[in-house]
Amino acid sequence: MTTLAQPNRARAADLFAALPRSASGTPAAYLDAARRTLEALMRRPDLLDGLTLERRPGGYARNLLFGQGQISVWAMVWSPGARTSVHDHHCSCCFGVWKGAIQEVWFRPINAHEAVATAEATRERGYVACMMPTGPNLHQIANPGSEEAISIHVYGFDHAVHASSVRTEYRMAAV
Which is nearest to 71 in space by CA: 127, 12, 20, 106? Predict the structure, then answer.
């Protein structure tokens, strides 16, 4: 389920203003703007002050912070043990770790429905990554820790048109 968080509009406007303009430029310019925006967000200890974020015990919850045209920004709240499916995206995907740590596992598809893990890394507070949907960019995000984690995601899709950024989900292949 997706909920709409209501941040202070003035605070959000200064951070998100460049994203819709940059989305109409080159992919490199957009990713650069998204990265700079996320880096600025990661430095804001007050970013989520005053917001009531949805939480899902044992899972993760998506909270819309900003959506305009082909840009949507989400706060993802990760309960301990929460994980996404193995997936790729139909749009650009940038994320930053705002609180705690998350684990990112990368995969290689072996057919249209299965994938094998190729690498993994723990992403700490302040980490920012961006990718275009030139794929395959298969990954899974999880919170393997015992504390809640929060990540901020900037996607190049209209949240009023698409339910999520996920294009395809994969099963982990038995090896």
Answer: 20
Known binding residue 162? Answer is no
- Burial class of residue 32, CB neighbours in 10 A (0-12, 13-18, 19+): middle
Query: Tell me: the pLDDT tens digits for 34-86?
Result: 888 888 888 888 888 888 899 999 999 989 887 777 778 889 999 999 998 88
Segment 85-131, tens digit of pLDDT: 887 765 667 889 999 999 998 888 888 888 898 999 999 999 998 77
In tens, the pLDDT along 139-153 reads 889 999 999 999 998
**Residue 153 among known ligand-binding residues:** no
Q: Which residue has the higher pLDDT, 17 or 151?
A: 151
- Domains, the chain, in order of start with CATH, read 2-172 (2.60.120.10)
Spatial CA neighbour of 156 closest among 41, 32, 30, 64: 30
- Chain CA centroid to CA 82, Å: 14
> Does the annotation list 159 as a binding residue?
no
